[in-house]
Fold this protein.
Amino acid sequence: MAVDLYHGEPGSNSLKVLQAIHEKGVPFTSHYINLTKFEQHDPEYLRINPAGQVPTLVHDGRVLVESTVINEYIDDAFPGPPLKPADPYDQGLMRIWTKYVDEVFRPSLSFLAWHAVIPGLAGAMPEGAFEERLARIPLKEKRDKWALAASGGFTERELESWRHNLAEVTDRVEQALTGHNWLVADRFTLADIAVFAMAISMPRSHGHLWNAERTPHAMAWLERMKARPGVAAALAMPNHTSFARAEG
Ligand SMILES: N[C@@H](CCC(=O)N[C@@H](CS)C(=O)NCC(=O)O)C(=O)O
């Protein structure tokens, strides 16, 4: 059995899959893709993931992309502690969380981070270099969003809506964890894994939302997550950049 995982720093979607694979105890070969060097756009990597994104799982030569799909696959395909609740209804609740992370939490966090970081990044590059990098991004949607972020083109309305989403996510998590140790069915699941992958950066990047006074249960849960051996092993994966654990 050969399991190869292509991933970036232990943050965001890479952290999501690293947690699952470590929690499940699946032996795997780690292939680090340096996003700051745009290795995700190297032709060799594009052969396994044409979207030019991490993570990618290759199991006995079969390729799987999309972190949420990969995590369900890891849970189903390998022995080890189950990462889904047994009850189908609870599984549904778990998937509401993973979908919410993919559709709302992750994009809102990313777009706000790009707004803050990309103009400076682009400005610091030699003439034409940023455009050259942009041209290598396979996904048109991502290319357009980066170009817009670089020109400071996100509207105040968009920024406000992403900030609103982050406040809403925060409140939902705090509410779900009030009186509960885990997000779904009183047990650790892929919902905790998915939310944690993004939430770990919140006290630093959005400390006005995530802090001991405003979200005591969410803060305690972050510590509970970090104390899990599998999650700790994922977080201990090599961290090559200053903005590791950031928003991908
Ligand atoms: N929907 C994909 C999104 C993957 C994704 O956006 N990955 C980010 C890192 S968290 C990435 O590869 N960013 C670099 C790029 O898009 O060029 C998933 O969940 O796997």
Remarks:
- Residues 88-124 form the longest helix (37 residues).
